[in-house]
Structure formats: structure tokens, C-alpha cells
Amino acid sequence: MRFIVALVVSFALVWACAKPLKKHPVPFYVCAVALVALYFWGVSAGVRGEAWSYFQPLMQRCALAFLLFTVVMFVGVLGEGNPLRTHLMPIRRQLSILACIFACGHIAFYGASYLPRLASAFSGNLAFSLGLAALITALMVVLWVTSAQRVKHAMKAASWKRVQRLAYPFYVLTYVHLALLLMPSAVAGNEVAVLSIAVYSVVMGAYVVLRLRKAAADRLAEPAAAASDLDLEAAPA
Fold first, then answer.
1. What does the entry list under GO cellular component (predicted)?
2. What share of the chain is helix, strand, coil (3-state, %, to 5)?
């Protein structure tokens, strides 16, 4: 239940802060870095308490980063007139950057814990998990770098769009990675892990359905647009 409450509150903050995030993104990036630092301090200091029990899972399980990536992905597949798309479309780039900052906290935390086991990491499930994590991290870095306005403007539009399509495998692989991390605890009967996997799975299932629907609608729209162009060309001047 705490996990759901934390996600709902996080989304409410994203919705409420859309306009200031668009106008002044840098203070938000600084706050994100500060939250990552607070998380590492809290873990090292052994902080406990009600507020920490809401905050810590969002950071350690990469839930906050996944939430922001989810908003970015869903906004792209919603209909043009959808109020969620209208409100959040202008801040997709900023949300992506924030998500990458929070994801770096997750990567650093688990990277430090797995580094001592690197020598024995080239076999079994650990090798697969680390390999998947490395692939996701590489995709995230590419998407993060190309989210910068200066890099985007330096690239050809077609090339930039092709690179941004890497967001689809990145998002799906992130879900797989999180599900695999939570699966042992879920199988052991941990209610938070079970709930987390259920939430991630529902979100991913909804996204896949909406993405396939949009792809089908786009394919249907292409012949109609082509026919309209032909009609305009054939019309008398």
C-alpha cells in the first residue's frame, strides 16, 4: 500500500509541476541529484521512520525512475486530444532527464553491491542480470545524451528519430529487469514485491496495448493521407 501511495503522490507532483518544470528545469535536476544523495546518506546512516519507508523503495527499486519513464512513454501513445498528453507532452524531455538521474542512483547502489562479486559473475543468473543491466544502462546513456537540446540540434532529424526509437526496447527491458529483481522476493511471499510486480505488469500491459493500437491507427492513416495528397494534386488550379 505504501508503494502505491508513493507512486500516486509522485505522479501528482509531476502533474502539478509541469509548467515550472518546462520553464525552469535546472532547479528540478538539482533537487533530483539532492534526493539521490539523501537516499545514499539515509542508507549509510541506517535511517528509519514512516517517511523513509515511503521514500526508500522509490529510490532503491528504481520505482520513481520507472514512473517517470512510464509517463514519458504513455504520453507518446495517447490520442492527440487526451488531456494527459496535452498537459505533459511539453515536458517529456525534462521528465526523461529526471528519470535518468534517479536511475543513476539505483545503478550506483546495486553496482557497488555487485562489484565485489564481479569475478564470479560470468555464469548463471547473476551473469544474465548484470548483462541485462549493462544493456539497459547503455541504452539509457544514449537516450539521455540525445535528449540534450544541443545534441538534438546537431543531429539530422531522421537520425535523431531513429535513435529515439531505442526508447521502446529500453522501456521493455527495464520492466523485465525490475520484474526479475523482484521475483525472488515475490516467490518467497513478500507482499510488497508481489504488489510491485503486479503494478509494473499492469502498466506494461496497458502500454503495449496502446502502442499497438497507435501503430495500427498510424498505418491506416498513411493511405488516407496519401490519397488526400493525390486528390489535391489532381484538383484544377
1. membrane
2. 90, 0, 10
